[in-house]
Specification:
It contains 19 helices and 28 strands. Strands 1, 4, 5, 6, 8, 9, 10, 11 and 12 form a nine-stranded mixed beta sheet that branches.
Length: 640
């Protein structure tokens, strides 16, 4: 592919976005911490770019300041327009830069996952003057194409034998196109039609099915922010400088840098922009908030109160099926779906499974067992195994993972982790001593066979699936590697066993007030307690300081020792932690690889570097204990 120039159209007034754009020009509206124009530019720079042009007019100083601070500043040329020149005049004004090579033009208010490389390649191979990215968008379909996908008209009605599509705001042009543009204000649409009338080809690439949105209105911007959260696998975006101790969050919410929390406030399905001040008693729901405005916005995720009988499973299933506004909550790795449903008295969480799910009956059985022994798990209100549906008390949306997103002082963080460890101590001691009351759990061992399954999963789903290292390339030391993994599994299997959650990480701990609750416990088994400790304290989702981690291990050990007495050896337990850490992080890498590559949940890729970093550090600590595994991990780390 030849190198191209790029031009971002960013001079518009953003009138439909007022009052938001009274404070922020549309291209600088934040999208999870990054200006929209930066999101666009990052996608464009995946192409072989020569130069980048940006036009500006309304509140141009802000765009200039952003460009100067941008990592791309040395490649950006700004074109200020004292009077708006239109989509054609903007290109003519930048002809001195754009005329040296084919160039791609991208509106600054368009967010998409359109394959820009394919668009450029089609333009090159077709020899057309212009290549437009188009899609079927009935609200905007006014671009009429012939059977070869070539432009014939732009109007409400088109010639016979043509079909209508919509322009996405993204196109590639040959430099000769600039000759069709007059000096001063003009539209590219007029130049397209002029080119067609002169016999030139304006080709199109149909990108229907790709994600595409503009942010031209408050509702469109609101939806784009929500979509960005979903694509990143997050429920909240909270700027790290925020103190959230006075904030009640629910549903989903975005609080951008520059907003302030001055008193107890609640935020639910809301975007809080720079300059907004949340004072005592502020309640924001289904809105966009700024320095002097709150814009109410309706969105498909708004979930009204629905009169319902909590215990009526069939009724709840029907409610979920016929009300599109009742959307799944959470972005975990499981295929299970959780929904929040409200009536006039309370909200509940409805679990729905698809097909035969052996974990369903385990979850309901374990729930009763854990609650009898004071393990904080959600209340089970109703269950129907035939329907694969259960109803639980609502624990809200704040997991430990979310709680840690805001600015917290180290003492508060450690205090919360101690409460979580209290729960773990209870599970590993008093509840374990009564495991015979739950034969199904007692019989589910986290043993050698399962441990070897985890490390095979690591080899298949991460080493091969993500890193692309085929088994045959490991043939020169595969026997040694199998021996290391076999020895590790046998060692971990030899440790004393207790009830272990087996995925005890920050997203499976909910925080209500200052009380932690355990969720997603259907995979519990009896295995080495240090595996849960490794999951929590070496969590790729949330990193802890080393010294705090040491103190928390000591705190856990004191709790177990107080219960077990002299028969329990802290020294012996400490020696089990490193092998469990090795085992756990290989499992996590395998899981992230499977979820991202097989299940398409690509947001799990962002956790791979931290999990691999943990595994690399653990191999160094293990020294020569597992030489072949160490060699593989070094190869993985060096290729990261």
């Amino acid at each position: 592919m030849r190198a191209v120039n790029a031009f971002i159209v960013a001079a518009g007034l953003g009138e439909r976005l007022r009052p938001i754009t009274n404070h922020i020009p549309k291209p600088l509206l934040p999208l999870l911490g990054s200006p929209v124009i930066e999101v666009v530019l990052e996608r464009l720079t995946a192409l072989p770019l020569k130069k980048i042009g940006i036009n500006m007019h309304y509140r141009w100083e802000g765009i200039r300041d952003w460009a100067m601070a941008s990592a791309f500043s040395n490649r950006i040329t700004l074109f200020r327009e004292d009077d708006l020149l239109g989509t054609g005049g903007a290109l003519k004004n930048a002809a001195s830069m754009l005329g040296s090579a084919p160039f791609i033009v991208h509106n600054a208010d368009i967010i998409s996952d359109i394959d820009l490389s394919r668009l450029v390649e089609v333009h090159e191979s077709s020899g057309s003057l212009v290549t437009l990215a188009v899609h079927d968008h009935p609200d905007f379909n006014n671009v009429w194409l012939d059977e070869r996908g070539r432009l014939k008209a732009v109007d409400k009605q088109g010639p016979s034998g043509t079909r209508a599509v919509a322009f996405t705001g993204i196109a590639v042009y040959s430099p000769d196109f600039l000759e069709l543009l007059p000096e001063g204000r003009s539209s590219v649409v007029g130049a397209w039609l002029s080119a067609v009338s002169q016999g030139a080809v304006v080709q199109t690439v149909d990108v229907t099915g790709c994600y595409w949105t503009d942010i031209g209105s408050p509702s469109a911007y609101f939806a784009a922010v929500h979509d960005a959260l979903a694509r990143s696998g997050e429920q909240f975006h909270l700027h790290s400088d925020l103190d959230c101790s006075l904030l009640d969050l629910e549903g989903w919410a975005v609080l951008e840098e520059g907003c302030r929390i001055m008193g107890y406030s609640s935020v639910k399905r809301t975007v809080v922009l720079p300059g907004a001040i949340l004072g005592t008693g502020t309640h924001l729901e289904d809105s966009i908030a700024g320095p002097d405005y709150v814009v109410s916005v309706r969105h498909q995720d708004n979930q009204p109160a629905i009169p319902c009988e909590i215990a009526n499973i069939l009724f709840l299933n029907n409610i979920i099926a016929i009300h599109p506004e009742v959307s799944p909550i959470g972005f975990g790795g499981s295929d299970r779906r959780y929904y929040r449903v409200r009536d006039d008295r309370r909200s509940v969480v409805v679990l729905r499974t698809s097909g035969a799910d052996p974990d369903f009956s385990r979850q309901t059985e374990y729930n009763g067992f854990f609650r009898r022994h004071s393990v904080p798990v959600p209340e089970l209100l109703a269950a129907d195994e035939d329907e694969g549906t259960a109803v639980f008390g609502d624990l809200g949306d704040i997991s430990l993972y979310v709680w840690l997103k805001c600015r917290r002082d180290p003492a508060s963080i450690e205090a919360v982790y101690r409460k979580v460890l209290d729960m773990l101590v209870t599970l590993h001691t008093r509840v374990t001593d009564h495991v015979d009351e739950c034969p199904r759990l007692q019989a589910r061992l986290f043993d050698y066979e399962h441990l070897r399954w985890e490390t095979d999963y690591f080899l298949e789903r991460y080493v091969k699936g993500v890193k692309g290292i085929m088994t045959e390339t490991l043939s020169d030391f595969s026997d040694g590697l199998e021996g290391d993994l076999d020895r590790l599994a046998r060692e971990v299997d030899s440790f004393p066993k207790a009830i272990v959650h087996r995925d005890f990480q920050s997203q499976n701990v909910m925080i209500m007030g200052d009380v932690p609750w355990m969720i997603d416990y259907q995979g519990a088994r009896t295995g080495p307690p240090a595996y849960d400790l490794a999951s929590l304290l070496w969590d790729p989702y949330c990193e802890l300081e080393d010294e705090m981690r040491k103190r928390l291990i000591q705190y856990y050990c004191r709790g177990v020792s107080e219960y077990r007495g002299a028969c329990w050896s802290e020294e012996a337990f400490i020696s089990t932690i490193l092998p469990c850490r090795l085992q756990r992080h290989m499992q996590a890498l395998g899981a992230y690889g499977f979820l991202s590559k097989v299940k398409g949940k690509t947001y799990f890729l962002k956790y791979l570097p931290k999990a691999l970093g943990y595994l690399s550090a653990e191999m160094e600590t293990a020294g020569t204990e597992y030489p072949f595994l160490a060699s593989l991990v070094k190869q993985l780390h060096d290729s990261a």
